[in-house]
Amino acid sequence: MKYRFAEMIWYEVKEAAEQDRVAVLPVATYEDHGPHLPVDTDVVLCTEICERAVARIPSEAVLAPPVPHGYSPHHMDFHGTLTITWDTFIRYVKDVCCSLAHHGFKRILVVNGHGSNTPPLDLATRLTVIETEGRVLCGSVNHWGLRKVKEAGRELRESDYGGTSHGGEFETSLYLALRPDLVDMSKAVDERSPLSNSFQSDLLAGGHPEGSSANFTPYWSTKTASGVMGDATKASREKGEKFLEAGIEGLIELVRELRATEIMDRRDQH
Amino acid sequence: MKYRFAEMIWYEVKEAAEQDRVAVLPVATYEDHGPHLPVDTDVVLCTEICERAVARIPSEAVLAPPVPHGYSPHHMDFHGTLTITWDTFIRYVKDVCCSLAHHGFKRILVVNGHGSNTPPLDLATRLTVIETEGRVLCGSVNHWGLRKVKEAGRELRESDYGGTSHGGEFETSLYLALRPDLVDMSKAVDERSPLSNSFQSDLLAGGHPEGSSANFTPYWSTKTASGVMGDATKASREKGEKFLEAGIEGLIELVRELRATEIMDRRDQH
Amino acid sequence: MKYRFAEMIWYEVKEAAEQDRVAVLPVATYEDHGPHLPVDTDVVLCTEICERAVARIPSEAVLAPPVPHGYSPHHMDFHGTLTITWDTFIRYVKDVCCSLAHHGFKRILVVNGHGSNTPPLDLATRLTVIETEGRVLCGSVNHWGLRKVKEAGRELRESDYGGTSHGGEFETSLYLALRPDLVDMSKAVDERSPLSNSFQSDLLAGGHPEGSSANFTPYWSTKTASGVMGDATKASREKGEKFLEAGIEGLIELVRELRATEIMDRRDQH
Amino acid sequence: MKYRFAEMIWYEVKEAAEQDRVAVLPVATYEDHGPHLPVDTDVVLCTEICERAVARIPSEAVLAPPVPHGYSPHHMDFHGTLTITWDTFIRYVKDVCCSLAHHGFKRILVVNGHGSNTPPLDLATRLTVIETEGRVLCGSVNHWGLRKVKEAGRELRESDYGGTSHGGEFETSLYLALRPDLVDMSKAVDERSPLSNSFQSDLLAGGHPEGSSANFTPYWSTKTASGVMGDATKASREKGEKFLEAGIEGLIELVRELRATEIMDRRDQH
Amino acid sequence: MKYRFAEMIWYEVKEAAEQDRVAVLPVATYEDHGPHLPVDTDVVLCTEICERAVARIPSEAVLAPPVPHGYSPHHMDFHGTLTITWDTFIRYVKDVCCSLAHHGFKRILVVNGHGSNTPPLDLATRLTVIETEGRVLCGSVNHWGLRKVKEAGRELRESDYGGTSHGGEFETSLYLALRPDLVDMSKAVDERSPLSNSFQSDLLAGGHPEGSSANFTPYWSTKTASGVMGDATKASREKGEKFLEAGIEGLIELVRELRATEIMDRRDQH
Amino acid sequence: MKYRFAEMIWYEVKEAAEQDRVAVLPVATYEDHGPHLPVDTDVVLCTEICERAVARIPSEAVLAPPVPHGYSPHHMDFHGTLTITWDTFIRYVKDVCCSLAHHGFKRILVVNGHGSNTPPLDLATRLTVIETEGRVLCGSVNHWGLRKVKEAGRELRESDYGGTSHGGEFETSLYLALRPDLVDMSKAVDERSPLSNSFQSDLLAGGHPEGSSANFTPYWSTKTASGVMGDATKASREKGEKFLEAGIEGLIELVRELRATEIMDRRDQH
Fold first, then answer.
1. Pick from D198, D207, D268: CB nearest C254
2. Which residues of E touch A104 (CB under 8 A)?
3. How far apart are CA C224 and CA B165, in angstroms?
4. A148 vs A245: CA distance, rounded Å
């Protein structure tokens, strides 16, 4: 059974939609990830987790063609960053989602691989809901926000708070599990944000427990010399394989949760 | 010493910027908040916390003129919701922030009173950073995300998970502390989201601990009949006063943290 | 009877719309008003006139939540000006008006307090008419363009042509009537446009009687050193109170005129 | 000496700019003008006045290529109306003005032939001022707002208030003076707005003296059955020739006034 | 029988649409055309061909009012170029086409006189098709792409490949046939692109037969010192008259082909 | 030597730009390609040609990360089409190109795999030239417009005019050469456009030799029942392999031609 939207003939897409399969859309970005990781880190991690998860449940989901380029203007001081203007990016993803909805997909899950894509993707999926007047369930999740990944994080991480952010222990481990030949661990570093608690973040742990949950995003190059924000030296392929499996299982779990969610009628008071 | 931007004569604005005072900008929205609360709930809570906090530290901060109308298309099934299109809203707030930056304010804190404003405001403040090429620190916080409010939440709340969301225990208590005459507690209800864990939220507790951190926002009227999402019946003026004080102190703390943050130079690799 | 939209519970908004009350929406801007007036001059004058007028006729009108930030790029050389990009401003106001229309308000009057807002507001209200396909009467008026204010101007003003423009006799008098403690009359000046007749204006008298009615708006700082355009020295609290009463009565008159206007069917020739 | 921009070779355009000639840009629209006038009424009147005025003072002005299509959504119920979306129209005219500024023209006068273009053109010319950072004087005038035309109106008009609006005495007379063969006076009518004073207008007399100066623009077809708003039956070729001469002389006067206006430096307080 | 849209009274436009006449819309631009041709070359050539063609078949076509300003940012180094931003230009033309469609024209042919307008006009006409959901046939043609012109080119041209591009043998000949008094043949030159085969073009011959069909458009001033791209010295009035006749006949042929084309129903698979 | 941008570490991207390698960016779309081909036909053909060509000349070129989603609104009647709004698509590709330029790439070649992308991509690459003020050579080519492919077409094609359009002999052959398992040749058909000469096209032969070169794009489903436009039955893997080799060699040729092109200075006349 085909699970890749891309490989389907047009009437097979129609059938997939009629089977109420969840459309899983990976979105990421290209940007510097320190001196040890390629610029496609976010793309590889996100698409591989989606690819493998959907492949295991082809009757329940479809892998929509990834949107690899995302929103990353604050990384432009480092070569390799390709950034799309905020509103163009939102409209682009919304158009992909609305195209899927046009063809009958009623449940669409955008899976994100890049932190700064979070607000644009929340908006893109909300716009899809509004444009379809509520007939479609469309939303997003960061792969590190999947329940099983958060759980795995609590078990597996060795670095302290701040260690599993951009290019740190978590992402480096995952890349090692997927394409070890492209990682140069000899250049892996441990670099942390110089900012105070309320302006801290950690992919797996979220905002700092001793800080306010503020959203501040200065230029990346003001915060890090290496481009890394976290402890890449703690990464290992073994942990990466466990994170990968957690991501796959966590995504399957969420797809099923979404598939079981009823699309309710609106109670318009007008 | 004047602390309201609005009341200053133009050269006083110049002086305030030269004193490196933090510009605090409240942003909210008008929308239904159940049968017991006025549609300005988000506006009143947010602006009052800002007003009172800045009034206590006039030499450190300036109260910028609030942007009261926000982003709330999914609430339009209920009368009283005034919603601004996503990109217009983002550009509007960005223009206010960039105007402040143009006049010399180097630290700008947007304080948000409406959950769905979070992604647009994150983008608006990021755009301000980009447009000023990193010379300005600009970001946002939800008033319920202030460290002291989260702390107060853990101490004060009586409802279980989900009880302190839209129009629930937290917001109703705060409104009772500010304008009790406008609250009709006889109509207060306890209504919860029918969705499963990964699609739950709670202002004070965040995403459900047993779910993935997914962002799904269907039309509000599909999730609630009363418009409330939480337990308004648990609200009290006493709790509201404590939440209010926590908000004021929490905001002062964050303003000071921001004021102490160094604006670092970019390390542009080009 | 509640007359403030903001303070209504959502079903009260519904009732107000069903009563065919006119929605009165104040719109202004923050900008320099000379060395003697605060930057909120346009906001205070406009919102106070609306507030007081609507409070007198609650069964006929509703005070919609003001849009305080407006369009003022040519004032940016002076600190304190907050300007919204032209199309963002138009869309923002249009969204507020269309939200009101969505909830059933059929007559919407935007009351403007800032000269340069006039063309954007004319467009915003026209767009509301077009988006609602003509089912709504929506338009704008400057508070100094109200019949009774123009009449009062002819009676009360002491300065000659050009004296009642930006920060001059008219606006300063009104501010003195509303918040005298914030006015520093010791700094009030009389400064006039250096331009010739066709490029002159006067809030109360309109274009120069000996000139063409041209619209030219160079940067404000090229025309005035103080920021004032008019004769602030002629202002007095007494005149301000009379202008204020004229504004209130003039607005009530216009609201009633609008309320009595039939919404006619279109004769579409297609 | 060439006065038409269109007929110049590129280096002649350079020379014209270096001579500080005023660029005169006619802008109009195509729309119904009643059963007796062609849809190009606004275009013909406006461009002919400009053409003839500039031809008389070639060393002082240049006729820029007209923008014939304008903003007229509220006329779309009548065939023949071609309307450009508001922001597209504004940007289009701004681009023409900024192109002229790019080539060295420092004084640009947009001459308008269509009432509803007034706010968009005011914005387009303001944007040109802002984009050129104040180095260019750019503004607009309606041909019926020229001093000599207003004067002629007071002398020549025979209809009472409201008679010289859309397709009425004034416009029909002018068209009769220019292309009498295209006018069908046997179909000329006298039709007036059914609205009350504050919503009245008259091209030559402005707002109603007994009303507030409100801007309300409902769909045209709700106000008139014939499309005419005014008294076309009072039109004559003789009056038209006098109005035409007044327009030509009035425009020459304004061009000279503009050419004599100094472009002053900004006093930026930053 | 009237053939100019502009000169029709509104109900005559309605009749013209009901007669299923093809709306022919000329679009061009103003830009430098070398030291021997006026900046309106593209406008004159395109509108004259349309004017004359439609005049010969008034019962089959209508001449829509031309859009003279187009897209030419890469020519801005030369005075006289007036350029409209890409998306504004596309929307403007689309609005004209959609206005025509709104009034009942079902076949719309945009005739282009400026090479760089080709992609924007293709998009503008496609958008018209999409906005009308396929009920209208709308497309574009460059006047040098008309079958009879290409044929005439093969017969008449004397210059070798590259000689009939911007301001070269073809355009100069046509201008000589239309307004010889405005051409300064003493300044006519032969200048060619310095680029290699794949980046060559020739209005009449298309891409270079020995190159790839690539689209590269560097700034014009990098490719030519005179502004000309082609051999203007080979131009003559005699050839121009033949090209003109070919254009007129070619356009009539295409209008008839379009008029004979059935508007087919969509086979929507949803 | 790495040739995939995606796999480079950020400083390797810097080095690749410093080596003046040509950035090759594949762009395509997902859409129905008849009952025998998957919806990723345009993506696979275009990216595979680019991948293989760049892999052969890693010291001269870099494979930029493909933009797979394109512009195809007229195909939306068939399932599987994912379309991006025209201006969003243009801005997205422009942002990728400008990001590449920001990092130092001076020669950027967009390789297109979808006919309707041609005008948007021409605009996107022109915008890149304008935004970089002419410092970058950026343009596009359709893979079937490569010199060697056109040549191969003349040699290899068996179908007559119109046979090598959408999903026809050419594309099907190429797909058979790349992923034969995904092609269902039992469903291959020969279907042609019902339109007359001037509205015909053929990927390899271009416009019809007996027609005008008009651009008309009605909804796809009005022209074809199968979705195919051409003769898929003439396809073979053998021809596909030859077309593929021609594409690879043709692209290498064009990359080298581009790399040898001097970036010339502008002769700005201002």
1. D198
2. 270
3. 52
4. 9
Distance from CA of F33 to the nearest CA of A (A): 7
> Burial of C144 by CB count in 10 Å (0-12 exposed, 13-18 middle, 19+ buried)?
buried
Amino acid at F209: P
Residues of chain B with pLDDT under 50: none
Cβ within 8 Å, pair B104-D270: yes
Q: In chain C, which residues have their Cβ closer than 8 Å to the Cβ of E103?
A: 270
Q: Find residue E121's DSSP bridge partners.
A: none
Alpha-carbon distance B211 to B200, whole Å? Answer: 8
Residues of F in contact with E79 (CB under 8 A): 269-270
Interface ipTM: 0.97
Indicate contact of C with D: 3+ CB pairs under 8 A: yes
Give CA–CA dist C210/C200, Å, rounded: 10
The stretch A126-137 carries a mean pLDDT of: 98
Nearest neighbour of E119 by CB, restricted to F122, F219, F254: F122
Other beta carbons less than 10 A from residue C59's beta carbon: 9
**CB-count burial class (<10 Å; 0-12, 13-18, 19+) for E242:** middle
Considering only CB atoms, F8 lies closest to which of A38, A103, A227, namely A38
Best probe of the C interface among B4, B8, B10, B46, by most C CBs < 10 A, is B10
Which residue stretches of chain D have pLDDT < 70? none
Interface test with B, best of A79, A85, A123, A226 (most B CBs within 10 A): A123
Distances (CA, A) of E170 to E104, E113, E253, F55, F232: 36, 12, 21, 44, 40
DSSP F9: B
* Cβ proximity of E198 and F147 under 8 Å: yes
Q: How many Å lie between the alpha carbon of D267 and the closest alpha carbon of chain B?
A: 14
Residue in this structure with the two tokens 């005034």, named with its chain if needed: B82
What strand order describes the sheet that includes B137-142? A214-216, B137-142, B107-112, B22-27, B61-63
Residues in F touching D102 (Cβ below 8 Å)? 270
- Residues contacting residue A124 through CB under 8 Å, at least 6 positions apart: A89, A90, A91, A93, A94, A97, A110, A140
**Closest residue on chain F to A35 (Cα):** F9
Residue C141's contacts (CB-CB under 8 Å, 6 or more residues apart) are C109, C110, C111, C112, C254, D198, D212, D213, D214, D215
Distance CA C220, CA C34 (A): 11
pLDDT digits (tens, 9 = 90+) for C43-58: 999 999 999 999 999 9
DSSP letter string over D192-253?
A: ---S-GGG---TTT-S-TTS--EEE---HHHH-SSS--EEGGG--HHHHHHHHHHHHHHHHH
Q: What totals of helices (H) and strands (E) does chain C contain, helices first?
A: 8, 7
Give contacts of D103 with chain E, Cβ < 8 Å: 79-81
Q: What is the least distance, in Å, from the CA of C270 to any CA of chain E?
A: 7
Q: Which residues of C touch E (CB under 8 A)?
A: 269-270
Which chain C residue has the Cα nearest residue D253? C212
pLDDT in tens, A32-90: 999 999 999 999 999 999 999 999 999 999 999 999 999 999 999 999 999 999 999 99
What Å distances lie between residue E172 and E75, E180, E184, CA to CA? 18, 10, 10
Please name the residues in contact with D179: beta carbons below 8 A apart, sequence gap of 6 or more: D44
For residue F239, give Cα distances in angstroms to F36, F112, F156, F172, F184. Answer: 17, 21, 7, 10, 17
E79 CB contacts (<8 Å, ≥6 apart)?
A: D10, D11, D13, D14, D17, D103, D104, E32, F269, F270
Of D40, D63, D25, which is closest to residue D174 (Cα–Cα)? Answer: D40
